[in-house]
Amino acid sequence: MTTAALIVAAGRGTRAGGEMPKQWQTVAGRMMAEHTVARFADHAEVGPIVLVLHPDDMAMAAHFPGVTCVPGGATRDASVSQGLDALSETPVDRVLIHDVARPCVSDRIISDVIAALETSSGAAPALAVTDALWRGERGQVSGTRDRAGLYRAQTPQGFRFAEILAAHRAHPGGAADDVEVARAAGLSVAITEGDERNIKITTPGDFARAEKLLRGQMDIRTGQGYDVHAFEEGDHVILCGVRIPHTRKLKGHSDADVGMHALTDAIYGALADGDIGQHFPPSDMKWKGAESDIFLRHAVSRATERGFAIANVDVTLICERPKIGPHAPAMRDALAGIMGIGVDRISVKATTSERLGFTGREEGIAAMAVATLIKG
Ligand code: MG
Description:
Elements: E1 3-9, E2 26-27, E3 30-31, H1 32-41, E4 46-53, E5 68-71, H2 76-87, E6 94-99, H3 107-116, E7 122-128, E8 133-137, E9 140-145, E10 151-153, E11 157-160, H4 161-170, H5 178-184, E12 189-193, H6 204-216, E13 219-233, E14 236-239, E15 242-245, E16 248-250, H7 258-271, H8 276-279, H9 293-305, E17 309-318, H10 328-339, E18 346-351, H11 357-360, E19 364-375
Parallel strand pairs: 1-4, 1-6, 4-5, 7-12, 17-18
Antiparallel strand pairs: 2-3, 6-11, 7-10, 7-11, 8-9, 13-16, 13-19, 14-15, 17-19
The protein binds magnesium ion.
């Protein structure tokens, strides 16, 4: 079963304040739309993802690799229809239609909607109304209303794909949400349990609340790595991807890039995902003489696959010679290229050990690294 996500981000969101539409404003370190897309991209049962953008915002598609971005219409209905049309070109069994302004949606809410679609044409999260309901006129209560059986609707609203596509094509327009479109076509819609934290960002105050909720859900991890390689006869060393002429070389199964090995282990460490020797056993001849960027690229991809971004890394090389300082900018550039992050997030520094110990006697080079990974 394939479950697509269709995220509607074509509105102008003027009530939220700010100079640009709310979906492009930053909340908890990322654009609101990036948080929302990540919620679905990180869910094990969801894919592909379609993001419906305002026709003036199509350039924002560059921020969403792997997501199909399509231009929306003049109304929410029209935008959803455009997204459904885009999905109709691929085999999709179910679709979850979600407002971009709900970036705090949880895995549990998404899973519950998907599960309910086993037995119902449609399913959507909602919360029972618990406050008393009044009718008001000119600041005066003019009547009361029984709240029994009333719900506050949330998204994602999930449907069997072919049924909601037909429902949208038949609908005259003007519906408040997709449940209304589905019901107009006679589809049944099950109510799943909503969550007070699944807020729709509408006003400036909602941004502050979403910021708190999203920061609370962030997964921040730190890992450390340490490595040593001995010197042997040779005429150059490779450190953090940079070849440096030297009177000796480092001994090792691969290219012996001690700095990159420590850094690779720091990333594995943050993920609690073993170490370099486990992923690339020295007993395996295939890694003999390997360039160490293979290892680092692997660790970075393990992080990315699990939804982590690398916030920063810090590598310390411990040796008397060669002098590292003049090469540090090239090392940072090399690591930035391999890891696909900005050079301002990469530190490479060096120290001697005051001629003490094996590094002081110039028998080898040691390296330490720390990496911080973040998912939010
Ligand atoms: Mg090593």
